[in-house]
Design goal:
The chain is an alpha/beta fold. It folds into four domains: 104 residues, Helicase, Ruva Protein, domain 3, CATH 1.10.8; 181 residues, 3-Layer(aba) Sandwich (Rossmann fold); 151 residues; 218 residues, 2-Layer Sandwich (Ribosomal Protein S5, domain 2). The protein has 29 helices and 33 strands. The strands form eleven sheets. It has an eight-stranded mixed sheet, sandwiched between helices. Strands 9-14-17-2-18 form a five-stranded parallel sheet. Strand 6 and strand 7 form a beta hairpin. Helix 18 packs across helix 20 and helix 24 packs across helix 25. The longest helix has 58 residues.
């Protein structure tokens, strides 16, 4: 047992910051999280698909910033990933081809192909308008026109010998009867004899056969002309295009797939010259669109491996999509409408994703696992992936996957995935844990100080002096809940500096000093402390009864902590105990009405065990004692009131009063050892606040476990109050030490005869228990005598 002195409450001294004046160091987040850094490094060095990384840590510890910076630093030393393009598949237009290129070449190829197509159209236009081509085309036409003319002259002469004239008509060739080269009229034909008519009819049949032969031969000539004309066009086009395409093939000769693609484009151009040079512009544009390059992944601007921090990991954002255009009321797509996702862009490097965002959609998580297993990336719309789409669509080539996935989440998320998904353990073998606190030593101070400077520089804040830095570190001790630790919730440091800068810039020297930090913290607290103020008012108005002066039997001020989410504060709780003769033992009212949690129920059982072991070894515990948290209307959880409940029970039975100006907190073992509890600073400040509002007497204070001494980080007002001896703090290790402070009597330890010293608290307690037990025995004996007398009667 000890009474805390003012020196015990000092958190920092000037000597702790001797390095401040000559400190000049850039913030290195790897030093702040060495454990996580080593784990991530291991994940980077192991290239297997199974060694992806899950970063575990609380929000605000800088885990995202740390991971992003670490990944970017590592990525700079890696090779830049390949570019990827999609091109038209001339063998199967439903399956666009993926081609890998060196970094930066995809964009070059895209521009070169656009230029090539422009030059191709210009060259073809010039070709078909050239004098040489027109001359050859006219010669060819003249040659075949002459053939057609000769064939016509020949058949016309043969028809003439049969006394018929041939005449071309819109609906065919007419065979007209003639004589001496002149067409006969209908009257002349009617005036002929039957023999002459029969002769004309027979010759007309022969003439029609001649016409049929002529038409057949004419078609052959026309087909030959068409073939020769196409051959001329193709040879001319090939001669014209060869230099253009040979230039491209030579430039990109190291890419066999690309060279084959250029050859296919040239051949397709030659095969479809009539469409390209025809009047159907839509058909021509469709063909030229097929020749376009889809620059799918462009790493031309990268220096090292790609790093993607995907903030919105939807299915299409991660794995890409196939877009559609509407043409003539129909949906249309092709290889140019394939869009890359983050997986494609990060391929060959690293992708960072928030785990909670990733798990919003089953298909996203399931697809990610499948791709990691197969080491291939597909582009498939989620409608097709889930089987809800009936649209005919393309199926692009898959791309080899070489990617390190880094998930960021908290411990709950990691444990849930590890427990529920067997694939998670197989694919994410590296766990990088972020600590939320640092050792309170000079190295840690330097790390945090460098972060403070980096925030001030990055956000253009007011400068900070030594006193301001010391105040920030005091705040970090308070956040950590231990004098030996400094909180590494870097977001809270940043928030504090931003608000402090606002206050500092309103002052004359515009410096963040100790008073500015304290003012900022008070301002932040005021914004969120309305509920605490309302509870304090209810205590002062006696709506909630808390006594801070005098003495009472069976009544102790315990301490509790309330958490509103953005604010944690302590409030006292009145614990009372009453007893009567009986054999029910200790009854906790909260437990009996199911207003307590499992830990609280365990604490009550521990109290019962302690009481029976300490005071009922020689005689039975012949009492019924009830313990209650007065004016509490919600569930009570935790074991920090065990010592207070024990003392209220001891006071009630022994009849020795408890000082109401002293509150107590602490867990307790079955052997009466006082154990540490949480929220010790808030609890002490909570009782001090009520005592101050009710009036400090110099007799008030708080008893806490000795093990909580390092967790005691109080504000300046309480420290000053302790210095002025207006408020006291004691630490204890056993229930006996607590009893002696709060009941102002020796607790009493059994002597060699097994008896407690006369006048001690335990002496009075055992005396009362013995009296109760004796009374029960007397009543039992009296009942027995009466029963015998009744039998005799």
């Amino acid at each position: 047992m000890r009474k805390i002195k003012i020196d015990d409450l000092v958190m920092f001294r000037e000597s702790d910051f001797e390095f401040f004046n000559d400190f000049d160091q850039d913030f290195d987040c790897t030093k702040a999280h060495e454990r996580a850094f080593e784990a991530i490094q291991a994940g980077f060095e192991i290239t297997s698909r199974d060694y992806n990384i899950f970063v575990v840590g609380d929000t605000g510890t800088g885990r995202r910033t740390f991971v992003k910076q670490t990944v970017q630093d590592v990525a700079k030393e890696k090779e830049t990933a390949s570019d990827w393009i999609y091109v038209y598949n001339f063998d199967d237009h439903w399956s666009p081809l993926a081609i890998s290129l060196n970094p930066g070449d995809a964009k070059k190829v895209g521009k070169d192909v656009e230029k090539l197509l422009e030059e191709t159209m210009k060259a073809l236009d010039n070709l078909f308008e050239s004098d040489l081509y027109q001359e050859k085309s006219q010669e060819l036409k003249k040659e075949y026109d002459e053939k057609q003319k000769n064939l016509w002259d020949k058949i016309s002469e043969q028809a003439k010998e049969l006394n018929f004239i041939l005449k071309a008509a819109p609906n065919g060739i007419l065979t007209l009867p003639s004589k001496d080269g002149k067409q006969l009229t209908d009257e002349q034909l009617e005036s002929m004899s039957e023999e002459e008519k029969n002769g004309f009819n027979a010759n007309q049949i022969k003439c029609k056969q001649l016409v049929e032969g002529y038409l057949h031969k004419s078609r052959i000539i026309s087909n030959d002309y068409q073939e020769e004309s196409e051959k001329l066009n193709e040879e001319s086009a090939e001669f014209t295009l060869n230099p253009l395409f040979m230039k491209m093939e030579k430039k990109y000769k190291k890419y066999d797939e690309l060279v084959e693609y250029f050859k296919s484009v040239k051949q397709d151009l030659i095969d479809n010259l009539m469409i390209i040079m025809g009047e159907d512009q839509e058909a021509a544009l469709k063909m030229f669109n097929d020749y376009q390059i889809n620059v799918f992944v462009d790493n031309s601007r990268l220096n090292g491996a790609p790093t993607i921090f995907e903030l919105n990991p939807t299915y299409s954002n991660l794995f890409g999509k196939i877009e559609y255009l509407s043409r003539n009321s129909y949906l249309y797509t092709d290889h140019t409408l394939i869009k890359a996702g983050s997986f494609h862009k990060a391929n060959g490097g690293y992708i960072i994703i928030e785990a909670k965002d990733l798990l919003q959609d089953f298909y996203v998580w399931d697809t990610l696992k499948k791709m990691l297993y197969s080491e291939r990336i597909n582009v498939e719309n989620i409608e097709s992936r889930s089987g809800y789409s009936s649209l005919a669509t393309i199926k692009p080539d898959s791309i080899p996957l070489n990617l390190k996935v880094i998930l960021v989440g908290d411990t709950y998320m990691y444990d849930m995935l590890y427990e529920l998904d067997p694939d998670f353990e197989k694919l994410f073998r590296i766990k990088a844990e972020f600590d939320f606190e640092l050792e309170n030593n000079e190295e840690s101070k330097k790390i945090i100080l460098s972060f403070i400077y980096s925030v001030i520089e990055e956000k253009k804040l007011a400068q900070i002096d030594r006193s301001g830095v010391m105040a920030v570190f005091s705040y970090l001790l308070r956040l950590s809940g231990s004098r030996k630790k400094l909180s590494s919730y870097f977001n809270k440091i940043s928030d504090l500096l931003i608000e402090a800068s606002r206050h500092a810039l309103k002052t004359e020297n515009k410096i963040i000093n100790e008073s500015i930090i304290k003012k900022t913290l008070l301002s932040k607290e005021k914004r969120v402390s309305l509920e605490r103020e309302k509870i304090d008012e209810m205590i002062l108005d006696k709506q909630i009864i808390i006594n801070t002066t005098g003495e009472k039997i069976g009544e102790v001020n315990g301490l509790s902590v309330l958490n509103t989410g953005d604010y944690i504060f302590g409030v006292p709780a009145r614990i009372t105990c009453e007893y009567s003769i009986g054999n029910s033992g200790i009854v906790d009212i909260q437990r009996e009405v199911d207003m307590s949690g499992k830990i609280f129920k365990k604490a009550v059982l521990t109290l019962e065990s302690f009481f029976e072991a300490r005071y009922a070894k020689d005689i039975p515990l012949s009492v019924k004692a009830t313990v209650s948290f007065e004016q509490t209307y919600g569930e009570i959880e935790g074991d920090s009131a065990t010592v207070a409940e024990t003392i209220s029970l001891i006071s009630a039975i022994s009849g020795i009063p408890v000082k109401q100006g002293i509150a107590i907190t602490g867990s307790m073992s079955q052997k009466g050892e006082v154990q540490t509890v949480g929220g010790i600073t808030e609890k002490v400040e909570g009782f001090y606040r009520i005592c101050k509002q009710s009036g400090l007497t110099g007799e008030q204070g708080v008893i806490i476990p000795e093990g909580n001494y390092d967790s005691l980080i109080l504000n300046d007002e309480i420290i000053e109050s302790v210095k002025q001896k207006q408020f006291s703090i004691w630490t204890v290790e056993t229930i006996e030490e607590a009893i002696e402070i709060i009941m102002d009597k020796k607790a009493g330890i059994k002597n060699k005869n097994g008896n407690f010293p006369r006048g001690s608290v335990n002496y009075h307690l055992m005396k009362k228990l013995s009296e109760v037990h004796k009374k029960i025995l007397e009543e039992h004996d009296a009942d027995g005598i009466k029963e015998k007398e009744d039998k005799i009667k």
